[in-house]
Amino acid sequence: MQGANQLKEAVVTPLQKQARLMRELGLSRRQGEVMALLIQGKTYKAIGGVLSVSENTVRSHVKKIYAKAGVTSRMALLHLLLKSSNAPAEAKQPVKPVRSRSLT
Fold first, then answer.
1. 3 falls in which pLDDT band (50, 70, 90)?
2. pTM
3. Among 9, 74, 6, 65, which residue's Cα sits nearest to residue 38?
4. Are the CB atoms for 79 and 98 separated by under 8 Å?
5. Angle (nearest 5°) at CA 71 between 10 and 53
6. All domains of the chain, ordered by start, with CATH?
7. Alpha helices, DSSP H only, in the chain?
8. Is 21 exposed, middle or buried, given 0-12, 13-18 or 19+ CB atoms closer than 10 A?
């Protein structure tokens, strides 16, 4: 029975991963909502529609999320989310921001 409890504790859901990253980055509740929709692949327009805000407001939130995460793209943010959730919770270190390279 103890092994089952340990396995249960080791399983982390995608929402738990997002919540952990939000806390580690110090995101506001609204920034967390934007990040959740952003990593689902939603467009700025779709995010604005879901949250009842303008695309410019979404853009502003995304800039702040990227700055706090130390990334410059949606893919780098997703990579950070995946990377931050690979280690078991008790062995977690603070998340180090990942810089994506610009092709320009």
1. low
2. 0.69
3. 74
4. yes
5. 95
6. 13-86 (1.10.10.10)
7. 2-10, 14-25, 29-39, 44-51, 55-69, 74-84
8. buried
